[in-house]
TrEMBL record, chains A, B:
Residues 47-422 form the Aminotransferase class I/classII large domain. Coiled coil: none annotated. It comes from the Bacteria. Keywords: Aminotransferase, Pyridoxal phosphate, Transferase. Its EC number is 2.6.1.39. One of its GO terms (molecular function) is 2-aminoadipate transaminase activity. The keyword Magnesium does not apply. The lineage of its organism: Bacteria, Bacillati, Chloroflexota, Ardenticatenia, Candidatus Promineifilales. This is 2-aminoadipate transaminase. It comes from Candidatus Promineifilum breve.
């Protein structure tokens, strides 16, 4: 730490800390450790052969364009595909509403640049996605949070947090990372109503929406908001949806002008190694993000966008590819979730509870409140099993006795072994605590 | 402009402006316009077939890894290749000194995060790379600049600028973008001496170093600095090179601990559509940049890194691929530069001067000082030819009568036609000015 750069660090950089948890999790690179820590898709479900064929066709047919600089907004045919795909879920947009980002993480960073002044307050769920906290802490944001339960954000506790004056809300409505919980339809309507009443817009992060293993698809917040806005006349400055003063796209639809910015990604449905995600937002938000993105990385890799577009449209199944592939992913992950839940029922001691997600990649475990999941991680690593302690997902340092488990990455065999090991660690910790408690009473008993 | 997001913009975002010049240059998407505006490589030199073969091998042999999440630092084999490649140019480093970035633009953004507090002063060449100005203006940096001449940065004018107290210097020593000029060996030594004496470190941006069309390779600043540091004992906090307290890498070399951070890219030697570049820096700088990059995009696309590594090492020519391919690029660009210079001599009117670069992609044209290159761009576009006005590269709004021409992108035929058109525009403007001058004297003459 003696180079001339060290004492030139910006205040912003000084506020960023390498995470101690991340250091612990580096140990999981050891192949002997069964890791429920990452958020990685199962490599077995990657459509490798389809990628190989798509890369071959792209480089064969328009290789020069795929290797050249391209527009900051993203590859137009891919943005058009996204518009068609979003429409299947009721999201009305035009390509001008879509920005391709280098992973969802970049979308979060862009929104940080766009919206956050140092000290600004952001409303999140508790727990919430650790990458959002990391991105926005770099902009010196503060957080106010509302807890989730099995039906997602507890909207009946929302008003108090809204009264603190947050600039926007950050919500993961489907199979939330890390909680695994899903916001109920009734709460979606209430949330949008509060958003409108208090004038606090929403960033909706939906990386897992398509990975539902049972039950019915629920409308995204951006759709609930649009329906609400359409049902009454627009005011001058307000969370409206249609802006008749804006140009219309080729389909004759007005551009989106909503109270909700919607984020999604190809990381869970195609492959995370592409770093391809997207933002759907009002045109003015996209335009400003384009200016900011120019300074960040000029544009997302052309080659990856072209390959993704080819795989999504150009194979034998045409535009049916993704639907078929997602069905395969669902089958694999549903089985792994079931294996994990069954093993937990068998091996986890009384006093430990968990969520039972209907989709996504994660579930959330709550230990007795006298246990510290970060301390226990060291013992778990000794037993060659890993997770992420809950405090990493906490905007306020709470969640010390909880943890996140990923069920998508490990094979069913490893899930069984890993959960058994974790159960032993938890049982031992509970027993140790009981012994310690008993000991603390010994002098009392002896004195009696 | 009536959505709830608009009035929530951060101060940082409000300080970023969409560039009027960029808007003008959007017109160059019209294929009828001959554009010397971009900084694009010739698509004819992209090794498309090698990319196709490499993508095929990567996806065939280790597709699952190439599609998965990967380390923020970058793909280790690619970092090891970079260490070997840098060593050919005298840069001693270890993989721990190398960070893969999503294009050089991201390296500039990362260094902005790492180093710049609002109001900090940065010393640049004048003119300098527009992407650096854009990245660092977003951090509310201020600039002090030193003009370049045919031998690069005028180091005899450096001390006055250093006395203003810049946090670091940003230097493009080889075939500078936009000037096309190269810093002479003598000046490299003087620059490093000043850097040491004033304690102001350097960011060396070297995207074009390998694209030299004649003359001898000059040592990078990072090497000149290292040699200077090695020749005398290290102080406690100082711009030293070897830090004996740091661990050593596998090759037994000490990690770099320099006064110069070195940036380069695959955009000009392989393809810009990959968005692959790298930073060579002291370990502590890399570690901090890794923390910042996690919040920005988690990591650069795994697939692209694996394909780049495969193309650089895995084909028939093995590690000889790049050298052979760069030779081809040099031949193509040398010819285009020569065609452009010949056409300029023929078609540009007296009073217009230009640089004669020995490498790179750009040259710099200076018009008579009564002409405004931004105004003239409109006339050039009417004649279906484009360039970037010099003011875009100016940290202080100067360079109004200059402009940048790119000679790598257009074919020789188009270069000839485009330069002829530009010559006509410049000649007409000079003539118009002469007529206007004459007219302004008319009343005087009539009165006499």
């Amino acid at each position: 730490m003696t180079t001339p750069w060290n004492h030139r660090c910006s205040l912003r950089m000084q506020s960023m800390r390498g995470s101690a948890i991340r250091e612990l999790l580096k140990l999981t690179e050891n192949p002997e450790i069964i890791s429920f820590g990452g958020g990685m898709p199962a490599p077995e479900v990657f459509p490798v052969e389809a990628f190989r064929a798509a890369a071959d066709r792209v480089l064969d047919r328009h290789g020069r364009n795929a290797l050249q600089y391209s527009a900051t907004e993203g590859y137009r045919p891919l943005r058009e595909w996204i518009v068609r795909q979003m429409a299947r879920y009721g999201i009305e947009s035009a390509p001008e509403n879509v920005l391709i980002t280098s992973g969802s993480q970049q979308a979060l960073d862009l929104l940080g640049t766009l919206l956050i002044n140092p000290g600004d307050l952001i409303l999140t769920e508790r727990p919430t996605y650790l990458g959002a906290l990391q991105a926005w802490r770099a902009y010196q944001a503060r957080f106010v949070s509302v807890p989730v339960d099995d039906d997602g954000l507890q909207v009946d506790l929302l008003e108090e947090a809204l009264c603190a004056g947050p600039k926007f809300m950050y919500i993961l409505p489907n199979f939330q990372n890390p909680g695994g919980v899903t916001l109920s339809l009734e709460r979606r309507h209430k949330l949008i109503e509060f958003s409108d009443r208090y004038g606090v817009p929403i960033i909706e992060d939906d990386p897992y929406g398509e990975l539902r293993y049972e039950g019915d698809h629920l409308p995204p917040l951006v759709v609930v908001d649009a329906e609400r806005c359409k049902s009454r006349p627009a005011r001058a400055i307000e969370p409206g949806y249609y802006d008749e003063s804006q140009p219309r796209n080729g389909n004759g639809r007005a551009y989106m002008r909503g109270n909700v910015i919607y984020l999604s990604t190809f990381s869970k449905t195609l492959a995370p190694g592409l770093r391809l995600a997207w933002m759907v937002a009002p045109v003015e938000v996209i335009q400003r993000c384009v200016v900011a993105k120019q300074g960040m990385d000029l544009h997302t890799a052309t080659l990856n966008q072209a390959i993704a577009h080819e795989i999504l449209t150009g194979g034998e199944e045409g535009e049916g590819f993704l639907m078929g592939h997602v069905r395969l992913i669902r089958d694999v992950y549903r089985e792994r979730r079931d294996v994990m839940l069954t093993a937990m029922r068998r091996h986890f001691p009384p006093g430990v509870t968990w969520t039972e997600p209907t989709g996504g990649l994660f579930l959330w475990v709550t230990l007795p409140d006298y246990l510290d999941a970060t301390e226990l991680l060291k013992k778990a690593l000794e037993q060659k099993v890993a997770y992420v302690p809950g405090v990493a997902f906490s905007p306020d340092g709470s969640e010390r006795n909880s943890l996140r488990l990923n069920f998508s990455f490990c094979t069913p065999e490893k899930i069984n072994i890993g959960i058994q090991r974790l159960g032993d660690v938890f049982s031992q910790a509970i027993e140790d605590h009981a012994v310690e408690m008993a000991r603390s009473f010994e002098p009392v008993l002896q004195a009696a």
